[in-house]
Design goal:
Its EC number is 3.1.1.47. Pfam families: Lipase_GDSL_2. By secondary structure, the protein is mainly alpha-helical.
Length: 143
């Protein structure tokens, strides 16, 4: 476990709740807050990246089972508070190969970002569908 970047699970949960409170205190309703679960980690691919960075580890400092717990807490906090929730964890775990979606075992690559966009687009459309169109749509704009 990377002691410099690790946030204990209880602190993570408290931080998510603080984010909700901050947004609500500044006029954002809970129904408009969107939480996105952390993605899973590909431990083998991340270990390769760690070695490329010169880190002295024989095993990945990020664990799939640990990341799953963070995704579960994110979902619990979002659902309890009445916020929107994007289950990126499950979307990626339901794919055949994480390597296709993660650049280094930890971060999304272009394909992973497109998958996230596919997951979040319906939620954003739901939250904004009542808003009036201020400018012409991009596909009918003529210069």
């Amino acid at each position: 476990m990377n002691k410099w970047q690790h946030v204990p699970l209880n602190d993570y949960e408290d931080n998510l709740k603080k984010m909700i409170k901050h947004c609500v205190d500044h006029g954002v309703s809970k129904e408009k807050i969107i939480f996105i679960s952390p993605p899973p980690v590909d431990e083998a691919l991340w270990l390769i990246k760690m070695k490329e960075m010169g880190l002295p580890y024989d095993t990945s400092d990020r664990k799939l089972k640990v990341t799953e717990k963070y995704a579960e807490v994110c979902k619990k906090v979002a659902n309890t508070a009445g916020c929107k929730y994007i289950d990126l964890w499950s979307a990626l775990m339901n794919t055949a190969d994480l390597k296709k979606y993660l650049s280094d075992g930890l971060h999304l690559n272009d394909t992973g970002s497109l998958l996230l966009a596919d997951c979040i687009t319906p939620v954003i459309q739901e939250l904004t569908s009542h808003l009036p169109m201020q400018l012409p749509a991009w596909d009918v704009f003529d210069l």
